[in-house]
Specification:
Blueprint (H helix, E strand, L loop, with lengths): L16 E3 L6 E5 L20 E5 L4 E5 L7 E6 L5 E9 L2 E8 L5 E5 L15 E6 L5 E5 L12 E5 L5 E5 L12 E6 L5 E5 L4 E5 L5 E5 L7 E4 L4 E6 L28 E6 L5 E6 L13 E6 L5 E5 L3 E5 L3
Antiparallel strand pairs: 1-2, 2-3, 3-4, 5-6, 6-7, 7-8, 9-10, 10-11, 11-12, 13-14, 14-15, 15-16, 17-18, 18-19, 19-20, 21-22, 22-23
C-alpha cells in the first residue's frame, strides 16, 4: 500500500531514500520524478520536485528541487534542518554532485563538478549518500558504478563544513577499508561513521579520520541505513539473492551482483553499539528472489517508532509499531 499523499496526477517513481530528522516529527523523501531506475536523467527535464516533505500521517507539507537535481539517490538532514542530496545522475552542467538545501528549499552549496564524473579530488563518480558529522564535516560515499567489477570509484570523501576537501580513503576491493559500491552512510551517537558496503554484503565502521574499527555481515546486504538517538540501527536489504529465480530453478548466476546466499531480504533492526540484530521486517517480494532490487532500499523511523521503507519499485511503505 502506498504511503504519502502525492499531488493529483502524480505517481511514485523509484526511490532509495527516506529520512526522519532528529525530532522524528516529519518524513523527508526523494523520488525520481515518476521514473523507474536510478542514475541517468530521471528528473532532468521533469517539471516535478524530487524532494518531498510529509508529516507522519502522509500529508505533503512541501516539495522542491525541480531543475536542480538530475537523479536523486540518497538524502540526509543535518542538525540545523538543512537537506543534503546526493545526485548520481548526469546532465549537461548538472548532476554528479552533492547539494545542500535549506529546509525551505534554497540551494546553499554544491560539491563536485557539475555533469562530470571522475576520480579527481573535486569530482565524484555517481555519489550515493552524504552524512554530516556533529562538527559539520561532510562525508560522501562515492560511487555507485561498477558493482562487482574493477571500474568506478569506491571511496569515502571528507570535506569541511564549507565544502573544502579534507581527505579520502578506500579503493575497490574486499578487504578492510576497501569498498565495492559504498551505498549508504550514517553516524552513531559516538560519531562513528557506518558505511553500507553493499556489493561486499557488509557494514564497515570507521572513525572520522578513516580508521577501520569493525565490519558486520549480520545485517545483510545494506542498501540503506538509519541510526536513531538511542543507537538503534535500521538496515534495509533489497538485493540479497542466491542463484535461483522465482521459479525455484538455478538460472541466476551463483556469483556476482547481489549474491548473498542464505540471507533474507528485508529491514533488520538492531544495535549500533554491539552489532546485535533484534528484529526483522521481511521484504514481501516472493522467495526465491529475482535479480535486481525489490522493495525497501532506504529506511527511517519516526518519533513513535514507526518504520518507513523507500521502495526501489516505487513507493514509501509505513510499518506501524505495535
Amino acid at each position: 500500500m502506498h504511503w504519502g499523499q502525492l499531488p493529483a496526477g502524480r505517481k511514485w517513481g523509484s526511490t532509495a531514500s527516506v529520512y526522519a530528522p532528529p525530532d522524528g516529527k516529519t518524513i523527508w523523501a526523494v523520488e525520481r520524478c515518476g521514473a523507474s531506475g536510478a542514475g541517468g536523467t530521471t528528473c532532468l527535464d521533469s517539471p516535478l520536485d524530487p524532494v518531498l516533505q510529509f508529516d507522519t500521517s502522509g500529508k505533503l507539507l512541501q516539495s522542491f528541487g525541480k531543475g536542480l537535481i538530475v537523479s536523486p539517490h540518497k538524502m540526509s538532514i543535518d542538525k540545523e534542518g538543512n537537506v543534503w542530496v546526493a545526485d548520481n545522475g548526469t546532465g549537461t552542467g548538472k548532476g554528479q554532485q552533492v547539494l545542500k538545501f535549506s529546509s525551505e528549499g534554497k540551494l546553499l552549496m554544491k560539491i563536485g563538478k557539475p555533469g562530470v564524473s571522475g576520480p579527481g579530488l573535486d569530482e565524484f563518480d555517481a555519489p550515493t549518500d552524504v552524512a554530516i558529522a556533529p562538527n559539520g564535516d561532510i562525508f560522501v560515499a562515492d560511487g555507485h558504478s561498477g558493482g562487482g567489477t574493477a571500474t568506478g570509484n569506491a571511496r569515502i570523501m571528507k570535506f569541511d563544513k564549507n565544502g573544502k576537501f579534507i581527505k579520502t580513503w578506500g579503493r575497490k576491493g574486499m578487504g578492510p577499508s576497501e569498498f565495492d559500491v559504498p551505498h549508504t552512510l550514517v553516524f552513531d551517537s559516538r560519531g562513528r561513521l557506518f558505511v553500507g558496503d553493499r556489493q561486499n554484503n557488509r557494514i564497515q565502521v570507521f572513525d572520522q579520520d578513516g580508521k577501520f574499527i569493525a565490519q558486520w555481515f549480520q545485517f545483510g546486504r545494506p542498501s540503506g541505513m538509519y541510526i536513531d538517538k538511542n543507537d538503534v540501527l535500521y538496515v534495509a536489504d533489497s538485493e540479497s539473492r542466491d542463484g535461483r529465480t522465482n521459479t525455484g530453478q538455478f538460472a541466476l548466476p551463483q556469483t556476482g551482483y547481489g549474491f548473498n546466499p542464505g540471507i533474507e531480504r528485508g529491514i533488520r533492526i538492531g544495535s549500533a553499539k554491539d552489532g546485535s540484530v533484534k528484529s526483522f521486517i521481511p521484504d514481501p517480494c516472493p522467495y526465491p528472489y529475482a535479480s535486481g532490487s525489490s522493495m525497501a532500499e532506504g529506511v527511517t523511523v519516526d518519533a513513535e517508532g514507526n518504520v518507513y521503507g523507500a521502495d526501489f519499485l516505487g513507493t514509501i511503505r509505513k510499518f506501524v509499531k505495535k
